[in-house]
Amino acid sequence: MSLVSHRFRPFGGSIFAEMTALSNKHGAVNLSQGFPDFDGPAAAKDGAIHAINAGHAQYGRMIGVPPLNQAIAVAWERDGRPAIDPDAHITVTSGCSEGIVAAILGLLNPGDELVVFEPFFDFYVTAAAMAAATPRFVTLHPPRNPAAPDAAFSFDESELRAAITPRTRAIVVNTPHNPTGKVFTRDELTLIATLAQQHNAIVITDEVYEHLTYEPRLPHISIATLPGMWERTITLSSLGKTFSLTGWKVGWAIAPEPLSAAVRAAHQFLTFCAATPLQHGAAAALRNPGSYAADLRTLFAANRDLLTDALRRAGLTVFPSHATYFLMADHSALGFPDDRAFCTHLTANIGVAAIPPSVFYADPTHGRALARFAFCKKRDTIDQAVQRLSNLTRRSAT
């Protein structure tokens, strides 16, 4: 008999842990879980080491250590956004994941509804379950012509309008989007903003990939900067994606005081504070970013192109990835029954691990023909994956 609560029983185990374990078992190139296989910048490490040597070993402030809150505020403004108060508007969390959970738990009551775009990062739905709230899904549909220059996943306005009800408390936006690599356009964000204001809904926006965009025509836009949206937006981001330090688990929530109070109400009872020396390291990285983000974009864009070409040669249809470090591909032409069968075969027999994305949909059949690949790796790692993918053919599927 399972001792897992009914709240969590539907979710099972993490697909990320499952595929990484399978990858390790077979010695595969792990393009499943989204973490780099190289180190972050020296400024971050030196800042953390200095903090440790200086004796910063105790709890920090619940809202974040002052140097980090100040550095986040400066970085926010440096990107062309309005000035914010480091203490009133910023809450440092144990990664963006905790920020997601804190925002949803702090805002939603049992019976409230949460609009989520699918495919989704699974924390949104599990956090809704913790809050006894109900997610309502809006599908991002693949482009009909993936080869078109402006091809991108998109949602239907009528589906978004239908998902919003009198019970809607919040709308979750993830831009740039994991796993599709989509950047929400200004027109799309303006529509979401208009509906949020009309229905008095809060927007929780996950922007951890804000610095990983590859197309000048598709810049990242923070929905909080649109007219009337600062007052009703919680903006989440993190150190991990920008500086390749995913294991540090340092994130933050930026919001006006009433929404910050909601985030903090939950945060204080989840982790209370992120690791103190790592917060100081994060502050150092934000104060001295150098060319790290630009260099990362250059590497990842080249990796994306190499991986895209290899997957297409192997017979997959690859959807354009304009941001993040993920891409989605359709494996239908190879003859596998579903995404799990394809990704298991790919990992065990070809030696390249990918994520079966049906778990990112409310209706798993929507993701049965797809696979998600991460390209946040050293060039040598991508080259090895490309070489192995040359062995993937329709014959190997039968």
Give your account of this protein's structure.
Helix 1 runs parallel beside helix 12. The two termini are 38 Å apart. The model has no long low-confidence stretch (mean pLDDT 97). With 398 residues, the protein is an alpha/beta fold. The protein folds into 2 domains: 138 residues, Aspartate Aminotransferase, domain 1; 246 residues, Type I PLP-dependent aspartate aminotransferase-like (Major domain) (Aspartate Aminotransferase, domain 2), CATH 3.40.640.10. A 7-stranded mixed sheet has the order 2-8-7-6-5-3-4, with helices on both faces. A 3-stranded antiparallel sheet has the order 9-10-12. Strands 1-11 form a two-stranded parallel sheet. The protein contains 14 helices and 12 strands.
What fraction of the residues are assigned to beta strands by DSSP? 5-15%
CA distance, first residue to last residue: 38 Å
User: Remind me, CATH topology of the largest domain?
Assistant: Aspartate Aminotransferase, domain 2
Apparent shape = globular
What would you report as the Rg, rounded to the nearest angstrom? 21 Å
Portion in helices = 25-40%
What count of helical segments does DSSP give? 14
Per CATH, the superfamily of the largest domain is Type I PLP-dependent aspartate aminotransferase-like (Major domain)
* CATH level-two architecture of the largest domain: 3-Layer(aba) Sandwich
- Tell me about the biggest sheet? 7 strands, mixed
Taken together, the total number of domains comes to 2
Structural class: alpha/beta
